[in-house]
Design goal:
alpha+beta, 14 helices
């Protein structure tokens, strides 16, 4: 199995990581961001009562803490689509600065529906006096929204989904979906008034995210696999088992139809940290912004992004799929006890891209069981995807072996060419020149991927693997920056638990052969005007008996009869004396090992869990 090298630094930052970084940087940074640190620690600071101050112009000015929050969303918001306005050649975004009024629709846009945090251990409600949701972000800006729509929603008596005790956050009611129907908008004059207010409509769809979500023990509602709709102020929900929670609802699609027919520019804002299924909405929407959940005051950046004061530069940290049942992680869910991880290393982009490499999407299995006949019918947006208000050109400059001092500074380098052979202790740097070829300022992310040699039935390997990435500074039109992407052979190693390649070694290793490096704009698409770069490993391969950082000997600890705590991932040691083990999704036979939900064969001990019958 491939190890994780580092978290994606160009998507969203965790507050705890951010705080640690500030603590080790120095007193100057600490002083500048004391409000952020104090807020996280729930203490007062010098700027605690000055988080959002009203300036002489009447527009809310931001303190250092609020500026940092705004920057997080500027850097993390992903532009998923940016088509032309209806009947024109101008892009949907950014909006015309001369037109400062928009309509905002949807339960997700309201104070009750806008999501600032997730549920579970990762959910931290913001302090009320500093909290900025979407509507407040507009109130604090130079832009206006149609308050008639929001006022009309009050008659529906919508509830806040995250109200109640923290112990209730795993209950199904947290995931209920409220919305006003198309008929409601049309019958009470809200639509006609909105058409006269602005030709632009922003529709907000929000979805709660959290950990270990499963069937509600009281209502028996299966949260991930169905929907519970509360429409037009109804006090009783309607369960829909033909759609999953992360798909658009029939009511939402009706509203999207209405907006498409009545407005020139329809913008969808996704307020969730989940990867949504958006295939049913795409053709009737001009642009899509994925903003995540916005924390205490990150929503302040949204009006700025909409009107182009800031160019969004986030990229997806997950794949946005099209068909729920085509994702093995969804197929292997377990409503009753513990989630099943039969998908092995093939989850997220490593599943979708490897399945494409192996021709799985064109197989009879995919066509008959999943109703998919090509990659484009399985994936809406690939991992790493993110559009911009401008465009960039990449130019490969060089690859080199580098040596660094104890502080990580480069002290020497030796240029290498494609086809060079690498060894265990090599450190390689790839330099890429990025040039802004568009008309507005913006940032870009360079992503470096590798493909390892694969032998049928041997070590399991994904066909596409993120190796390194970096983000430019904000580049003005015509301006360039050279980025350096660094890695070692260890970063391309796979973990061979069972000595699958029969070389008498179990641990991290590289098989002999060609390792193909590619510069990509996302996990699926090679950047235009770039070429593959090949690094060779000698036929006997490379082995890493010890961790290169800690020096600790690396051995398999979760397989076989000697597994840690006697709970083996392969089932040996606890499923009877025969050692009949766990079955996993395998690249050697995706069709034969892909689990279809509903067929399960449960071999259970008192300590471990069941697995799905892959047939």
């Amino acid at each position: 199995m491939k190890k994780i090298r580092k978290a994606n630094k160009f998507i969203f930052l965790g507050v705890s990581v951010l705080t640690l970084g500030l603590l080790v940087t120095g007193t100057k940074v600490l002083k500048n961001y004391d409000a952020v640190i104090a807020g996280f620690l729930n203490t007062e600071s010098a700027a605690a009562n000055n988080e959002m101050d009203s300036g002489s112009s009447g527009v809310i000015e931001k303190s250092n803490g609020a500026k940092l929050c705004t920057e997080l969303l500027e850097e993390g918001t992903v532009l998923l689509k940016n088509g032309n306005v209806k009947g024109g050649t101008k892009k949907s975004l950014p909006l015309d600065s001369r037109k400062r009024k928009v309509n905002i629709f949807g339960y997700g846009a309201t104070d009750e529906g806008w999501l600032q945090f997730a549920v579970g251990s990762g959910g931290t409600p913001p302090q009320a006096k500093k909290s900025v949701n979407l509507l407040k972000a507009f109130d604090n800006s130079n832009y206006s929204y149609n308050k008639n729509i929001i006022d009309a929603y009050k008659s529906l008596n919508w509830k806040a989904r995250l109200e109640g005790k923290s112990s209730d956050t795993k209950k199904a009611y947290v995931y209920y979906q409220y919305e006003a129907s198309r008929n409601w908008y049309e019958s009470n004059g809200v639509l006609e008034q909105a058409k006269s207010y602005s030709d632009t409509a922003i529709y907000v769809i929000s979805r709660v995210s959290g950990e270990n979500t499963r069937t509600d023990s009281v209502s028996k509602e299966s949260v991930p696999a169905e929907q519970t709709l509360y429409t037009d102020g109804a006090t009783t929900g309607v369960r829909k088992t033909n759609r999953t929670y992360l798909q658009t609802t029939e009511v939402e699609e009706g509203v999207i139809d209405m907006l498409h027919e009545n407005f020139k520019n329809v913008i969808l804002v996704i307020n969730s940290t989940n990867a949504m299924f958006l295939d049913t909405a795409d053709d009737r929407i001009q642009s899509i912004l994925y903003v995540g959940t916005t924390g205490e005051c990150c929503a302040t950046a949204i009006p700025e992004i909409l009107w182009g004061e800031v160019n969004p530069s986030g990229h997806l940290s997950d794949t946005f799929p099209l068909v729920p049942k085509a994702d093995p992680a969804f197929a292997n869910r377990n409503d009753y006890t513990t989630p099943v991880f039969q998908e092995s290393i093939y989850f997220g982009y490593k599943w979708y891209e490897t399945a494409d490499t192996m021709g799985f999407w064109e197989s009879d299995f995919s066509k008959t069981k999943l109703n998919i006949s090509k990659y484009e019918e399985a994936v809406y947006r690939p991992f790493g995807y993110g559009e911009s208000y401008t465009n960039f050109n990449w130019e490969f400059e060089e690859a080199a072996y580098v040596k660094k001092d104890s502080e990580g500074k480069e002290i020497s380098k030796t240029p290498i060419s494609s086809g060079s052979t690498i060894n265990n202790n090599d450190e390689i740097t790839v330099k890429v020149k990025v040039t802004n070829k568009g008309e507005v300022e913006g940032k870009d992310v360079v992503q470096l991927y590798y493909t390892a040699p694969y032998t049928q039935g041997k070590i399991e390997k994904a066909s596409t693997n993120l190796l390194d990435f970096d983000k430019t500074i904000s580049l003005k039109p015509g301006e360039s920056q050279t980025l350096s992407l660094s890695f070692t052979p260890y970063d391309m190693a796979s973990f061979d638990t069972y000595d699958a390649n029969a070389n008498s070694f179990s641990g991290y290793e590289l098989d002999g052969g060609n390792y193909v490096l590619q510069l990509k704009s996302d996990a699926h698409n090679v950047k235009e005007n770039t070429t593959d770069f090949i690094l060779k490993v000698a036929p006997n391969g490379l082995k890493f008996e010890k961790d290169p950082v800690t020096g600790t000997t690396v051995i398999p600890q979760f397989s076989g009869s000697t597994a840690y705590k006697n709970c083996s991932i392969d089932g040996n040691g606890f499923i009877g004396s025969s050692g009949a083990g766990q079955k996993y999704l395998s690249r050697s036979n995706f069709e034969g090992t892909f689990a279809l939900y509903g067929k399960k064969s449960c071999r259970q001990s008192g300590r471990c869990y069941c697995y799905r019958d892959p047939r």
